[in-house]
Amino acid sequence: MGRRKPTVSKHAALFSDERVVVGVDDLVLLPSVSETSILENLKMRHAADVIYSYIGHVLVVVNPYKWLDIYGEDSMHAYMHKARIDVAPHVFATAEETYRTMLSEEDNQCVIISGESGAGKTEASKQIQNYIAGVSGSGAGVDKVKRTFLESNPLLEAFGNAKTLRNNNSSRFGKYFELLFDSAGRPQGGKVTNYLLEKSRVVKPGKGERNFHIFYQVLAGLPTAAKQKLYLDRGGPESYHYLKTSGCYDVDDVNDTQEFEETMAAMQHVGIKRKQIELVIQTLAAVLHIGNVQFQPETVGDAEGSSLRDRESLRIACELLGLDAAKLEHALCFKLLQTMAPGGKIESYEVPQNTSQAKSQRDSIAKAVYDRLFDFLVERVNHALDIEKKAEKHGEILEIEDMTTIGILDIYGFEIFDKNGFEQFCINYVNEKLQQIFIELTLKSEQEEYAREGIEWAPIPFFNNKVVCDLIEARRPTPGIFLILDDTVKTMHSRQGESVDANFLDKVAGIHGSHPHFSKRGKTFEIKHYAGDVQYNIDGFGDSNKDFLSKDIALIISETSNKLMRYIFPEEIDLNDKRMANTAGYKIRTQCEALVTALMDCTPHYVRCIKSNDQKQPNKMDDRRVIHQIKYLGLLENVKVRRAGYAYRGDYGRFVDRFRLLSKETYPEFRGSDKKGTQAVLRAAVKSLPQLETEVQLGKTMVFIQTPETFFELEKLREKKLGSFAMRIQKAWKKYFGRRHLLQLSHDITKLYTSNNKQRQRVSIYRPFDGDYLRDSTIREVVMGIIQHYGDSEKIVFMDEVQKACPIAGVSPDGSPIALVGRILIITDQYLYLMEKRTWQPVVDPKSMWVPPLVYLRRRLRLTAIEEITMSTLADPYFVLKVHQEPLLLEPNKSNWADNKSTMVCMATGKKFGLFNRRHHCRYTGKIYCNDVCKQLEVVPDLGFYTPVRVYDKVIGLMSTEMPEDQLLLSEKKTEIAVTLVDAIRSLASVVTPISFSDSIRLRRAASAGLSKTPPQQIQFVSSGHDRITGDINNVQIQVAPGVPDEYIRKRRKREKARRKKLERQREEELAIRAQRHAQRSREREAERLRRVAEKKAKKQAEKEARKQALTSRKSAKASMESVRKFGENVQSSSSNGGIGGANSELAAILARRRGA
């Protein structure tokens, strides 16, 4: 109906694997269970625009009163083929579970959506339909079915929805939509059943509310010529009595003209012909004109009567409906009554109607016409979805018994108002029946499953509301309220208004006065429903229950010349017929019985809708109103029941598939049965979750876990394992991508080596490029902390430990004039880091304690400062980074220093400075600290401090302490480092860093000789029989063993190629074996599934046959009773209760049987 108002999406992360969970997704996991804790969790999630939560398999949704961008195709795909537990709570998850369960279990499904007006039931229903339409099969016929049932929504909303104080698009009828699917899951047809249309709205919408949308759409969207033809050109809604009394004509953000066009298009889509559409609009116009018929008082004989104030509106209405205006005028002002004369003869006489009674007659016509018109539209939708007629038309044979259905029930939620009447009584009765189904299908079936699986369990206590349902609907042994009301109406058919209502209340109180769930209070009676106590005012109960036209008016309508009117009022009226039409109570009981029968044949899924506030405002949660809904929706009871049973139950196969990676016995390959696999998983998990010992039970085909906390701890173990796998996958991908990306560069540098006669080490031949070689997790954590200190979020492309050549005084004991010290080399896509690792040993006893290794940053260098990479032509692991050098700063940089005078306290401890608490500027941060935390001395060359100065203790190790100068480094991975640096610098600055070769290198040292860490000698590379470093204060000679010959490289390449082929063959063979095992396991699981499906079908068929037999028995018993439905039969009353004890009363017969008569 176009009620959505798009807003900016906040849900980009809703469907991601790393989404942030607000509160708890499942209310069963709340630390403490109460209505308040449920409210707080819903409130927290609502504030974050997370409107969906679970109670086990029950979906709870809070209406946000704004459009959230979480229903598009991307959202739909995020839930397709996903288990409910793997995705965020969403109506799509419920729809997915419903659809897939129907396919896998070959069983009928239903979704029961409940909640009060404005809670979002209709929107939830439409989203479920949209999802199922999106994921089910396609084809010309299938797409037509989908289009029909989707287009039925705007059509039925136009005629069945209205603006109320609580909801701008409130459904004023209940709807059970059934879709029929073939074995492939493609929709083939369907059916719509409507319930409890609020006919009273046609004649009297509430103040500040609107009548049904269609009236305003017709007045806004109908062309001028058509309006003139239907006499609707005399003004807007304010010109029609049925529309103007409420004082509300418009709805925010709704264009009635545009809505009219959509409704007309929807009528065509569902197959309503153009002439039929014209007749429908003509009938709507007639209803508006009927409302404009007004009466004036008139004395008829000695009685108070009435007459028409103006005949024009009646004439127009009768013209449009094809009725005789004179006859209808007479029927409105005079009511035909019939009595039984002695001898069984029926005598008829007319009674003048006062203005109030005449208006009631007028309104009854309008309500009846609109009600039948609505039924006609539903019938047209059903005709378009009728699979049998479609098959018959195309000469096809359908096996409907092999098809399955998904039903979606969108019906009024439980209602408690300040004044509750007959409509609320009927609505709450239906909700009691739905609660009874919830108990029957959910709680009882859960316990039956425990017994069937042979596991130990404690009975779950719950309130069985059958006693309340019997109070309302029972026939025997004690008649229910509906039966008493029907009997009262029939025995007092000639009377109206308060006398009927009062008599009815007296009878109910007389029969049920001692019932624990019933009490009488003045003109009201109270019923203790499952959702709370409700007081019902009896005013209008009798008239509302009659729900039929008087026979004289029905006779006039039956003589209509209008084709549509003849179709929707097909009854033949016989004034001498003694039978009385069915009451509203009888109709709703019959409909409810059919609904219960349909639902009992399905596996139920539940959606509980909650409105966040009555003002329809976004971002607002009314605690009092939400608590009220939590109470009557029974959410607290749902949570308690779910926690009382087993929180998780699943097939062994499904459990193994989900958790097999927790055990080495089941991952990566498992060969045993699913049950043994489950046991293996639990044995592995119990090491981390010892509570599994007592909380898990293994049934015949399923595993049960008692508490939700334990199950979610198991889920966390799985997530942790997946996280470690993800890291391995990322690393493998990085390795693969790095090798692929650097393969060309490696090839280029190999050619460069060859052209410069560069010899190769054995270790460098066919060495893969991994990039990340730092294995120590403790060191890694400290290193990452230093990088993050600089806010460098750049991608790390290389990380490993290397050695750096540093000068020494004199010559080392082994004769080397230089020292090789350990460094950690990190290359990001913008910077190069050189860090030093130090390990401190305790002075007293090295074994008594362990001190984590410390890592100090020695140089942070921007990659563009590397001017050249130099290597020798020999087979050595050395390489030189030639670094651009900046001149020394003449003055230290103090631009970041805090003001000394205005700073009175230490910026770290908060201590005041004084005589015994001196202040110090940290030369690195520029902040001012006290002596307690600023004791360390360190050089800060980047800021011009070339001698040790005071720095804040906590920045030690975070700043560069060496100056930019050439670096002589040693690493077996020098080729990878060179390739990585060249590629990173080219990406950063679009320049190619040259790689040069020389066996004699002079390193450029730092401008401050005292801070230089680079050897001052000339570096000479010479070929020798072994690796060794010699020299003196002027020269360093690095002796290098010979490299591998070319013949070795060719043979190695050939062996590597053969090895890869062998591995590929082994992998293919292993995959084939795994595929065979998987196929066998799948066949075994499918056989088990089919066995369970057959067993379930047999049980359902037996239950259906039992219900059918019970119904046949009831009908037989009813047929054997004395007939009490004969209108006008002389009743001998034994009391003054208006016929309740009469011998010919249905109630009297029931009571007589109770007394043993």
Automatic annotation (TrEMBL):
<keyword id="KW-0547">Nucleotide-binding</keyword>
<dbReference type="InterPro" id="IPR027417">
    <property type="entry name" value="P-loop_NTPase"/>
</dbReference>
<comment type="similarity">
    <text>Belongs to the TRAFAC class myosin-kinesin ATPase superfamily. Myosin family.</text>
</comment>
<keyword id="KW-0863">Zinc-finger</keyword>
<dbReference type="InterPro" id="IPR001609">
    <property type="entry name" value="Myosin_head_motor_dom-like"/>
</dbReference>
<feature type="domain" description="Myosin motor">
    <location>
        <begin position="22"/>
        <end position="719"/>
    </location>
</feature>
<protein>
    <recommendedName>
        <fullName>Myosin motor domain-containing protein</fullName>
    </recommendedName>
</protein>
<dbReference type="GO" id="GO:0008270">
    <property type="term" value="F:zinc ion binding"/>
</dbReference>
<dbReference type="InterPro" id="IPR036961">
    <property type="entry name" value="Kinesin_motor_dom_sf"/>
</dbReference>
<feature type="domain" description="TH1">
    <location>
        <begin position="758"/>
        <end position="983"/>
    </location>
</feature>
<dbReference type="GO" id="GO:0005886">
    <property type="term" value="C:plasma membrane"/>
</dbReference>
<dbReference type="InterPro" id="IPR011011">
    <property type="entry name" value="Znf_FYVE_PHD"/>
</dbReference>
<keyword id="KW-0479">Metal-binding</keyword>
<dbReference type="GO" id="GO:0006897">
    <property type="term" value="P:endocytosis"/>
</dbReference>
<keyword id="KW-0067">ATP-binding</keyword>
<feature type="region of interest" description="Disordered">
    <location>
        <begin position="1050"/>
        <end position="1145"/>
    </location>
</feature>
<dbReference type="Pfam" id="PF06017">
    <property type="entry name" value="Myosin_TH1"/>
</dbReference>
<feature type="compositionally biased region" description="Basic residues">
    <location>
        <begin position="1050"/>
        <end position="1064"/>
    </location>
</feature>
<dbReference type="GO" id="GO:0007015">
    <property type="term" value="P:actin filament organization"/>
</dbReference>
<feature type="region of interest" description="Actin-binding">
    <location>
        <begin position="592"/>
        <end position="614"/>
    </location>
</feature>
<feature type="binding site">
    <location>
        <begin position="115"/>
        <end position="122"/>
    </location>
    <ligand>
        <name>ATP</name>
    </ligand>
</feature>
<dbReference type="GO" id="GO:0051015">
    <property type="term" value="F:actin filament binding"/>
</dbReference>
<dbReference type="InterPro" id="IPR010926">
    <property type="entry name" value="Myosin_TH1"/>
</dbReference>
<dbReference type="GO" id="GO:0000146">
    <property type="term" value="F:microfilament motor activity"/>
</dbReference>
<keyword id="KW-0862">Zinc</keyword>
<dbReference type="GO" id="GO:0005524">
    <property type="term" value="F:ATP binding"/>
</dbReference>
<dbReference type="GO" id="GO:0005737">
    <property type="term" value="C:cytoplasm"/>
</dbReference>
<dbReference type="InterPro" id="IPR000306">
    <property type="entry name" value="Znf_FYVE"/>
</dbReference>
<keyword id="KW-0518">Myosin</keyword>
<dbReference type="GO" id="GO:0016459">
    <property type="term" value="C:myosin complex"/>
</dbReference>
<keyword id="KW-0505">Motor protein</keyword>
<dbReference type="InterPro" id="IPR013083">
    <property type="entry name" value="Znf_RING/FYVE/PHD"/>
</dbReference>
<keyword id="KW-0009">Actin-binding</keyword>
<dbReference type="Pfam" id="PF01363">
    <property type="entry name" value="FYVE"/>
</dbReference>
<dbReference type="Pfam" id="PF00063">
    <property type="entry name" value="Myosin_head"/>
</dbReference>
<feature type="compositionally biased region" description="Basic and acidic residues">
    <location>
        <begin position="1081"/>
        <end position="1108"/>
    </location>
</feature>
